[in-house]
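RECORD TYPE: inverse folding
INPUT: structure tokens
STRUCTURE:
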């Protein structure tokens, strides 16, 4: 079974999952050569190890609470908070509460 990705012009519901958050999984929304969007689930106490991403990223916390650790600081994101990170910026994520986030990645165009 292939994974469904949203088509241009297709509406995607990103409302908080509420009680459904407990059983939710990461969901790829869109993936192209230049852009990727994922509804990311981070459970309380769960950590995503420090890493870098090849593109510029944004994280929009839809519900719950996470700690975003950067090289020189740490931020707490709660419902409605949004943050941008430059391409290649080292970061990690820790769930303070069960959380749902919209992760977007913008990749640099390939030079040919």
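DESIGNED SEQUENCE:
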């Amino acid at each position: 079974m292939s994974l469904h990705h949203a088509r241009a012009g297709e509406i995607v519901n990103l409302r908080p999952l509420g009680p459904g958050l407990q059983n939710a999984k990461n969901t790829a929304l869109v993936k192209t050569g230049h852009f990727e969007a994922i509804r990311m689930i981070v459970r309380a106490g769960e950590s995503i190890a420090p890493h870098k991403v090849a593109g510029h990223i944004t994280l929009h916390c839809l519900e719950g609470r996470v700690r975003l650790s950067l090289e020189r600081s740490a931020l707490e994101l709660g419902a409605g908070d949004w943050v941008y990170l430059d391409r290649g910026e080292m970061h990690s994520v820790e769930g303070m509460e069960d959380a749902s986030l919209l992760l977007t990645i913008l990749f640099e165009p390939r030079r040919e």
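NOTES: The chain has a mean pLDDT of 92.
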